[in-house]
Design brief:
The chain is mainly α. The longest helix is centred in the N-terminal third of the chain and has 17 residues. The radius of gyration is 17 Å and the shape is globular.
Length: about 160
């Protein structure tokens, strides 16, 4: 209920109330003994997005990193929720003009989306690909012949 209330606050541009409610949700879940429960990761992602919207880039990045850590500890770093947090992390890095870290985050997100069967036309993968193109991502192949994003060489190396 708290999660849905926070989302409603956010949708109504009551970002301060949304942040407060997301934080309360996390506190309740942790008191219930769910310190690394997947829903906490999702809430941390929403909290990071809310902070990002009001340009609190450091707080947003901290929430995204905490969510990524929970996904990694639980072995869920190959799922689409993880990729969404990676994409959002890329947005923060892009906003603070850390081009390389933004590229890395968008590329990793694109690879995870691709590994989960998303086509290039899927909105999530398409957004990541567009960010890569806008930031000047180039093919990592020796001859630079890949016409798809992410580079086929990058995808092949991830599969090993």
């Amino acid at each position: 209920v708290m999660h849905e209330l926070a989302i409603l606050h956010k949708a109504n541009d009551n970002i301060g109330d949304a942040i407060k409610t997301f934080k309360q949700e996390i506190a309740v879940r942790r008191k219930l003994g769910q310190p690394e429960y997947p829903l906490i990761s999702q809430t941390l992602n929403h909290l990071g997005v809310a902070e990002f919207e009001i340009k609190n880039h450091n707080r947003a990045l901290n929430y995204f990193m905490e969510a990524l850590t929970i996904y990694e500890k639980s072995g869920n770093e190959s799922g689409t929720d993880f990729a969404e947090v990676l994409y959002n992390t890329g947005l923060v890095f892009e906003a603070v003009r850390n081009r390389q870290r933004a590229l890395d985050a968008f590329l990793e997100a694109a690879c995870v989306f691709k590994e989960n069967g998303y086509t290039d036309e899927h909105p999530h993968l398409s957004k990541a690909i567009n960010k890569l193109k806008r930031l000047g991502h180039t093919c990592q192949c020796r001859r630079g012949l890949c016409s798809r994003f992410p580079c086929q060489t990058v995808l092949a190396s991830r599969m090993r």
